[in-house]
Write a structure and sequence with these properties.
alpha/beta; 3 domains; Nucleotidyltransferase, domain 5; 7-stranded mixed sheet
Length: about 400
């Protein structure tokens, strides 16, 4: 059934503590909870749940808040529900009125909720962070006209030989294991033909993977690297410390001025970077309701085929004004954002299963990075305001001295 609604103004309880009386109203999470447009999630994600069948689902704000907190602080499903019990600020952010000492839900409920909302639901979560940034004036509508796009590799949680010792051990065992696999596969095929047994789709897929594994050689294309993650590709990005990475390609789009994430997608298969640019810009247009006018990319995007947005490639000299050359220097601002997604977020290694898991993890990591930036902004906005007021006073005194109009900083 539809998610349970949260009571906005519940009656006071003599034996329970209200979180309003417990938390500091100036805390970043408390202020962030008031900025987010939670009702929009109820309207958009409620369509994913049946209105009549089954038990009522958990409140949307509770589950969405847990997702935000999990990827903001780089926590697992089990740890985030445990931290939720310990922290009143986590509970307040998720819409609770009274302090609770029980787990909000079972950790597996987060997995099922992710699968239920899908990639479209996670895009709504990212949209909420963009709207919150606009409301807090961390970014402006003008900032959405110029974006920076780049790709990286999101590695999958698979095991593979990473050094020469493991590789030599693997070479000795591969021939013997292939012999075992061939015998078992041929025996299964004989038994299937003799007994005329109908195999399920899962069994047929596993036999197809076995045949594919037996036929592949050193120079084969589209190799099978993992049985439980058959879509994983071997991608080389030219890194000196890591020549090959096993996972999927992820595309990230940020504003050129503030380096705020406005788009994130994953692509199964080792696609050329230029072939992913059109889809990425379309996602940015959908999430922000504005089509970017200018996009700054590196040289790997040559031959992109995008017409609606002007694409400026790093190193380009002809047809670029001095202003655009200065903006092109901001293209490198996306590199530390990707580093934060992997170091501070959960993008270094994806633990979610399948192609859908890759797409969800990229979007949720982008939500976590945006929330980290917004929370840091809320923590320091008072100091920023004091500095701006001092700058305005200095500008006013200077203007009075030289007889010009004073400049004011917003």
């Amino acid at each position: 059934m539809k998610p349970k609604p949260l009571d906005p103004k519940p009656q006071d309880d003599l034996f329970k503590i209200r979180l309003d009386d417990l938390v500091d109203k100036s805390h970043a999470l408390v202020r962030m909870a008031g900025v987010m447009h939670w009702d929009l999630l109820d309207d958009e994600l409620g369509a994913e749940f049946c209105a009549t069948a089954g038990a009522p689902a958990l409140p949307t704000r509770l589950m969405a808040g847990l997702m935000y907190l999990q990827h903001t602080y780089n926590l697992s499903d089990e740890v985030v529900v445990e931290r939720w019990v310990e922290s009143p600020y986590f509970q307040y952010f998720c819409g609770q009125t009274f302090s609770r000492h029980q787990l909000p839900c079972h950790p597996t409920s987060l997995t099922r909720w992710r699968q239920r909302i899908g990639e479209a639901g996670c895009e709504w979560l990212l949209t909420l962070t963009i709207e919150a940034a606009l409301k807090l004036k961390v970014i402006t509508n003008t900032s959405l006209k110029r974006v920076v796009v780049d790709t990286t590799v999101q590695e999958k949680n698979i095991r593979f030989p990473t050094d020469s010792h493991l590789y030599n051990q693997m070479r000795k065992a591969v021939k013997q294991i292939k012999g075992y696999l061939g015998r078992v596969l041929r025996d299964l095929q004989r038994q299937e033909d003799q007994q005329d047994i109908g195999l399920t789709d899962r069994q047929c897929d596993r036999l197809e993977q076995a045949q594919r594994l037996l036929k592949q050689t050193k120079k084969s294309k589209n190799k099978l690297y993992s049985l439980h993650e058959p879509h994983v590709d071997c991608i080389s990005k030219g890194k000196a410390h890591k020549r090959y990475e096993f996972g999927v390609k992820a595309s990230i789009a940020t504003t050129a001025k503030e380096a705020f994430i406005v788009g994130a997608r994953s692509y199964a298969g080792n696609l050329y970077d230029g072939h992913t640019l059109k889809d990425q810009l379309e996602q940015v247009s959908v999430l922000t309701n504005k089509t970017p006018q200018t996009c700054y990319v590196d040289r790997g995007y040559r031959g992109h085929g995008v017409e609606n947005t002007r694409i400026i490639i790093a190193g380009q000299k002809r047809g670029i004004s001095n202003t655009e050359q200065r903006w092109l220097k901001r293209r490198n601002s996306i590199e530390p954002i990707i580093g934060h997604l992997k170091a501070d977020g959960r993008m270094r290694r994806c633990y979610l299963k399948g192609v859908q898991g890759d797409a969800l993890n990229v979007l949720l990591c982008a939500c976590g990075q945006n929330l980290r930036k917004l929370l840091k902004w809320l923590c320091w906005d008072k100091i920023y305001g004091l500095l701006l007021r001092q700058f305005n006073r200095i500008g006013l005194r200077y203007a009075v001295t030289v007889g010009q109009q004073p400049f004011l900083m917003a």
